[in-house]
Amino acid sequence: MHGLSPVRWFRYLKREWLLYHLADTRFRFMWDPPPDNEWVALDCETTGLNVRTDEIISIAAVRIVGNRVMTSERMELLVRPERRRVSAESVRVHQLREQDVAHGIAPEAALIQLMYFIGCRPLVGYYLEFDLAMIDHALFPLLGLGLPQPRNEVSAMYYDYKFRQLPPHQQDRVIDLRFATLMNDLGLPLRQAHDALNDAVMAALAFIKLRQLLATS
């Protein structure tokens, strides 16, 4: 490993440390070098908003290759919660009732499918931090750690794009980061929100458009 820069050396050591602590070696592939110009956009629906006590009830993911959203290469799963009932508040958001998810697949099986679907591709999402906190919390008993892939937050990309357009005297202005605002401003189709697959596809479309805009701004 001689000749590596300090940054690359640190990344190598971090990767080796994580792999050493990986509880299930079947999933070493997630630390492989990612394919060029490929990402996975994902979204989850949950029984509520408490990362420690609530559970995932729906996961969707779609692959991005270059400037294309590969809707033929998607994953959409209903997940059966094991401890937590679906709250009335969350039903009003995503329309998934107790009886809708009662025959979903077990959480561990859903997470295994997700990991194989993602592979080593970087992740994309809108307010991805919450979704990955839920996934990582559920994954920890299986792996001993969370998903290692790099993350691309669409709302942060949109903020950067809008901020670059502001003159210096307006750069303290609040930027509206709501999903509907973002999609409308970018001229992208707005699907029904709080459906995991719809949200994943919209995040993928926004990611592609924002990459293009940020590259030229």
Folded structure, characterized:
With 217 residues, this protein is of the alpha/beta class. The protein has a single domain, classed as 2-Layer Sandwich (Nucleotidyltransferase, domain 5). 43% of the residues lie in helices and 17% in strands. The chain has 8 helices and 5 strands; from the N terminus they run αβββαααβαβααα. The protein has helices at residues 6-20, 88-94, 98-101, 107-118, 128-143, 154-165, 179-185, 196-216, and strands spanning 38-46, 56-65, 68-78, 123-125, 151-153. The chain has a 5-stranded mixed beta sheet, with helices on both faces. A hairpin with a 2-residue loop joins strand 2 (56-65) and strand 3. The model has no long low-confidence stretch (mean pLDDT 88).
The beta-strand count equals 5
Secondary structure: helix percent: 40-55%
| H and E string | HEEEHHHEHEHHH
Arrangement of strands in the largest sheet: 3-2-1-4-5
Total discrete domains: 1
Radius of gyration: 19 Å
CATH topology: Nucleotidyltransferase, domain 5
Number of helices: 8
| Beta-strand percent range | 15-25%
Secondary structural class: alpha/beta
Output the CATH class name.
Alpha Beta
Please tell me what the overall shape is: globular
Gap between N and C termini, in Å? Answer: 38 Å
Secondary-structure arrangement, i.e. CATH architecture: 2-Layer Sandwich
Average pLDDT reading: 88
Which regions are unreliable across 5 or more consecutive residues at pLDDT < 50? none
CATH superfamily: Ribonuclease H-like superfamily/Ribonuclease H
Report the major sheet.
5 strands, mixed
